[in-house]
Structure formats: C-alpha cells, structure tokens
Amino acid sequence: MCNIPFTNYTLDFKGMIDYIFSTPQSLARLGFLGAFDSNWVAQNKIIGFPHPHVPSDHIPIMAQYAVIPTSHQRAPPPPHALAGGFP
C-alpha cells in the first residue's frame, strides 16, 4: 500500500501490526492516509503512545476504494424517493 514504518508505537515496541488487505481485481484504491510523521515523534521526544496528542497506541490507517464491477454482479436498485433516496 505505502511505506508506513509503524502503526503501533509504545515504550517497548514499535512496528507494523495493523493492515488493510484488498483484492486489486475487485477494488481500485483511490487514496490512503499517509504515514505518521516520524520527525514529529523524534523532535518532541515522544517515547510511546498513547500521548496527549495521540490518544491510542495504534496509529490510524485509512484507505478509500472503489468497487470494480464484474460481469456477474447485479447493479444495485435505485434509491426509493419515499425512503429518503436522492433524486
């Protein structure tokens, strides 16, 4: 996906333990949240998370995908106007 050096950063462990798996045949990656700024961690002498500015020991990861339609998929039904669907 991208070169993220770590997703977990604690006093005694720093490493990649969170992942997003996808199938390129059915999902097209549109974007992703970049890596956490390692320089900020070093400059502020952060020894681990949680921290007042990072409330979890897991660094957030996120990706946006679009579904690649296949020939055997049915199109979803259109939204119903009375049920709050959009025009």
From TrEMBL:
Q: Select a single GO molecular function from the record's annotations and give it.
A: 3'-5'-RNA exonuclease activity
This chain belongs to which protein, by name?
Answer: Endonuclease/exonuclease/phosphatase domain-containing protein
- Which species? Ancylostoma caninum (Dog hookworm)
Q: What is the lineage of its organism?
A: Eukaryota, Metazoa, Ecdysozoa, Nematoda, Chromadorea
